[in-house]
Structures are given as structure tokens and as C-alpha cells.
Amino acid sequence: MATPLFAIEGLHVATADENPVEILRGVDLVIGAGEVHALMGPNGSGKSTLASTLLGSPEYQVTAGRILFKGDDITDWPTDVRAKAGMFLAFQYPQEIQGVSVLNFLRQALSARKGLDLSMLELRLAIMEWMGRLDMDPSFADRYLNEGFSGGEKKRNEILQMAILEPEVAILDETDSGLDIDALRVVAKGVREVQSSRPDLGILAITHYQRLLEELEPDVVHVLVDGRVVESGGPELAKRLEAEGYDAWR
């Protein structure tokens, strides 16, 4: 049996403070190369905790279980090592970074990820091609990262980063949060554009809403309730959630 691209095995996670509170209570999930998985759950179910834990946030501690990336146990790997290995997180609320342009940020990130020291001209050419595919204004390359960006612009910028950094697995943490339907379609189209260039990319899309899944068309949908994956199935599971809500699984 082939080693899966990404796997979460019996993951228990608590807050990393003096009085730990357990949030995830045994999460199991396997993503193969080229697969799109969606994770849905109500507020407080542990979705954002899972996203933060997968990227090594110090706010949470893994108390049991493990995270595997291409067969390696990365549970204790620091965030920068995970990112360099090929993991990517698109944040629900991307941070503004004053004084650092999108172009400079991507140059530094690409150097850290792949050891490539591209000239500004080489990088600008690569970015311009992707900006065209993502319907982004070319002037964004010289603006400070996320400063004054609309919600949709911030999310598109995250997809641009994903395109340029070429990760092997991408975790999209409520990428649809705060977007109107037009912006959502642009972001989902961007994700599909990246997929078309990287067919082996594995994606975990964490979301509240069926509407993102209508655009992304996931292979597998998981339902997270009270810190556990209580059911997994095909896209029809998302439609059932839309119709019935989460009460059936509580």
C-alpha cells in the first residue's frame, strides 16, 4: 500500500497553557496526492485549532496521536521546517506586514522554501503570469503585504503565494470567510488554476459553507463535531449538512 501524502492519526490537541483544555479528541484523516478534502463543522468544533496545529502553532500542544507528511512523523517539527518541506496554510485572517512588498515577501519565502534566489525581475515575471491567471491587478506586487487589501484581495494573495511556492499539501483555513459570492468564485477558480498546474497537490479546505464546496468539488467531505471526525463521505454529505445542519451528529 502506497504511503499517503498526508495523514492525521488519533490526534488529541489541547491549549498550551497552565490549565490545558482539550479541543481535539482523536482526529483521523488521510489525504492522497491530488485529492481535495473538505472539513466542515460548527463553531467551536475545533476546525481552526486543527489548522493551527497542522502548521505547528505554539498556542496548542499535541497530547496524543501524530501528523504524518509523506510518511515522516512531523508532529514535533517547527513551522518553518514544515513550510520548507512543502506544507502551506492559507489563513482565515491573513496578516498585514508593513514595509514589505508582496514581491519581496514572495522572494524571501521562495528562498526559504526552495533555496532559489531569483532576481526581482525573474520573480516579477513569474508573479505577473500568475496574477493574470488569478485576475489580480499587477500593481499588487509592489504594495505592502495585505495592507489596505479587501478581504477578497487578501485571499487571492494567499492563492498567489500557494501558486509561487508550489507546496505539496495546502490547508485552506476558512478561505471563504467574509467573501461575497463573486470573490469566492475568483478564489475557488484560483485554487483550481493552481491544481491544474500541480495535479498531485493535496488540499484540505476547512469551511463552514456548502457554497465553497460547490466551487471546489471535493473528493471527500469530513464532518468535525466536538473535536472528532464523526463522518466522512462524498460531496453529497455537504448537501446533507446544508439541509439538516449539525444536530444529527451532536
Question: Would you write up a description of this structure?
Answer:
This protein has 250 residues and is of the alpha/beta class. It contains eight helices and twelve strands. It has a single domain, classed as P-loop containing nucleotide triphosphate hydrolases (Rossmann fold). The strands form three sheets. A six-stranded mixed β-sheet has the order 6-9-10-3-11-12, with helices on both faces. The radius of gyration is 18 Å and the shape is globular.
CA-atom Rg in angstroms: 18 Å
Q: Please give the number of β-strands.
A: 12
- What is the highest CATH level, the class? Alpha Beta
CATH superfamily descriptor: P-loop containing nucleotide triphosphate hydrolases
How many alpha or pi helices? Answer: 8
**Global structural class:** alpha/beta
> Are there runs of 5+ residues with pLDDT below 50, and where?
none
In terms of DSSP E residues, the strand content is 25-35%
CATH third-tier fold name: Rossmann fold
CATH architecture: 3-Layer(aba) Sandwich
Form type: globular
- Cα separation of the termini: 34 Å
Helix content: 25-40%
Main sheet makeup: 6 strands, mixed
Order of helices and strands: EEEHEEHEEHHEHEHEHEEH
Number of domains: 1
The overall pLDDT, averaged over residues, is 85
